[in-house]
Amino acid sequence: MLTDAVTTLSGVGEKRAEGLAELGITTIYDLLYYFPFRYDDLKVKAIDEIADQEKVTLKGVVVAAPIVTRFGPRKTRLNVKIQIEHTVVLVTFFNQPWLQDKFEMGDEAAVYGKWDALRHTLTGMKVLATQNSEHPSFTGIYPVNKHVRQSWLVELVKQAYDRDGQNLPEMIPDDIRAKYKLLPEQAIVAGMHFPQTPEQASAARRSAVFREFFLFQLQLQALRQQTDATSNGLMIPYDNQALKALIATLPFELTRAQKKVVNEICADMKAPTHMNRLLQGDVGSGKTIVAAIVMYAAVTARYQAALMVPTEVLAEQHYAKLTALFQGFPVNIALLTGSTSTKDRRSILTGLESGEIDFIIGTHALIQKAVNYHSLGLVVIDEQHRFGVNQRKILQEKGLKPDLLSMTATPIPRTLAITAYGEMDVSIIDELPAGRQPITTTWIRKNQFRQALDTIKTQLGLGGQAFAITPLIAESEKVDLQNAEQLFADLQGELGPQVSVALLHGQMKAEEKDTIMRAFSDGEIQVLVSTTVVEVGVDVPNATVMLIMDADRFGLAQLHQLRGRVGRGHQAAYCILVADPKNEQGVERMTIMTETNDGFVLAEKDLELRGSGEIFGDRQSGLPSFKLGDPVGDFNSLAVAQQVASQIFAQDPTLAQPEHKMIQRYLNSIRQKNGSLD
Ligand code: ADP
Ligand code: MG
């Protein structure tokens, strides 16, 4: 039976069972779905067809007895000569002296290794079956450990397959399998373990990857169903005419993408389910206005709406903008941050509790203990990645179940958004408002700094403003401050007394920062030197230069965010990266920045350059890792799996239909294993 322990197979003693358990294999089922992570193509090639450093199999006759030489402690070299056609090839194995016994003069031998085309030698990696090579030419390579060897594992899989391979339950419903041309389970297992050709292996992999994503998505859907059921979400019957009236007052036409996401969000709010939606849009794509519209929707249904942002500067900027926007509309807006005076704070808290305030903007102060709401219907979290903690949980602990909209400009590829935030719905604003000036990005070395100065001077001459950013790099804040101060002094010296340069850094008091930020925003300050505090959200349309020092110290996502601070007005804008990267990766990052302005392209590249873990920081642990599938490379498969899994739950929420019985059993078994799904 599939549920039998691996110890029921012959040859599995205690040690090996332990070794298998370490690999996560305890049952026959586990073993059959323990797949190779890659394949070696051991095809025999003619010598003149082999490329240098290629891994190949050579087959020939042993023409000189193997010799083992020792050099250094525990280091050995085994040399053996094999004649292939008319060429004699020297094959060397390092540190595997026991292979000596495998070679007999005059015998035929097949060896696998790395070819050196110049010397006509092979660095041996393994000896395949000697004599009439019964070894398959195309073999899977498994992750193994010291108790479990490759060749033994392959034998064991064969044994299990012969015994129980016919009894594998079909997890993917027949109609879906037919529609997407997926293999049945037995063919997946056979094709993954025992493919004869690379084509067979990749066909099996295609189905196996889908299967993996599908099972994962089923778990997410089940989890989501659980939360939906327990969270009896709000129904927000907003006033569509009122929304239209608001939109009509805007000085611009909403983009197609903005309209699309407003509709998606409004539909969610109207539905009785609990909204938990992620809104992604590149910097400058116009997320704020979308937030304002949907918050107004909540207000028209007599609910309160809260907009939570990561910094006070940003909260104030949003407050100013939204107050202007809602001029003439029946909306009572308030601002609550850490630096709101005690008196104001008290009256705001009262207003929130009585329901007199409809619309509150602020930092995380908004969800602190003392804050009570009359009828909180919608919470919008701007730049959600900036908040470390789980907002939803905090809100729930306060007994609140508002609809939630999280906004982010960190362009997570949709693929990863689905996997990492699988419990959320995702809306994407995938176009920028028309008429945006392109941002020209250049990368210069430190010794070319003069070029940066020239650009800044020209732009200031045209009436523009400039950001100059230094990174937080040093261990101590003091050193970072020194770097910023140095740049500040340099720029002041170079640009002369008629140009007003200011310094903004993280250690300043909130009021000081605000004063400077406001002066910059009003055009009183022309050049703002800053540590990365301006990174998020701030809107200064007149700024046309973004100078970034030591740019290689920043991640691509962060550089892109910073760059997004300029190019928001009608003038052409410039981003200048100053960096002497220390490695190839740094060079690549600088180069790609100059090549594209597309945040999603950068995000994909970022992922490629540093692996998926880092993008999420704290979320790392929450990010599922797949055994076979690659969420980026196998994007389509993941997207289809999500779609299919959610359709199944939509059609058959209790999984009662016969074709979903296996799925139900699978989810139950997982629930049992984990205690519960969450
Ligand atoms: P982000 O998505 O980065 O938060 P913002 O919401 O700050 O972007 O919008 C950037 C700028 O674009 C703002 O000045 C905003 O008024 C403007 N904007 C937003 N939507 C449009 C549009 N449809 N057409 C023209 N300008 C727009
Ligand atoms: Mg924004």
TrEMBL record:
Belongs to the helicase family. RecG subfamily. Plays a critical role in recombination and DNA repair. Helps process Holliday junction intermediates to mature products by catalyzing branch migration. Has replication fork regression activity, unwinds stalled or blocked replication forks to make a HJ that can be resolved. Has a DNA unwinding activity characteristic of a DNA helicase with 3'-5' polarity. Residues 448-608 form the Helicase C-terminal domain. The lineage of its organism: Bacteria, Bacillati, Bacillota, Bacilli, Lactobacillales. Keywords: ATP-binding, DNA damage, DNA recombination, DNA repair, DNA-binding, Helicase, Hydrolase, Isomerase, Nucleotide-binding. The keyword Zinc does not apply. It is an enzyme of class 5 (isomerase). It catalyses: Couples ATP hydrolysis with the unwinding of duplex DNA by translocating in the 3'-5' direction; ATP + H2O = ADP + phosphate + H(+). The keyword DNA repair applies. GO terms for molecular function: 3'-5' DNA helicase activity; ATP binding; ATP hydrolysis activity; DNA binding. This is ATP-dependent DNA helicase RecG. NCBIfam families: PRK10917.1-3, PRK10917.2-2, recG.
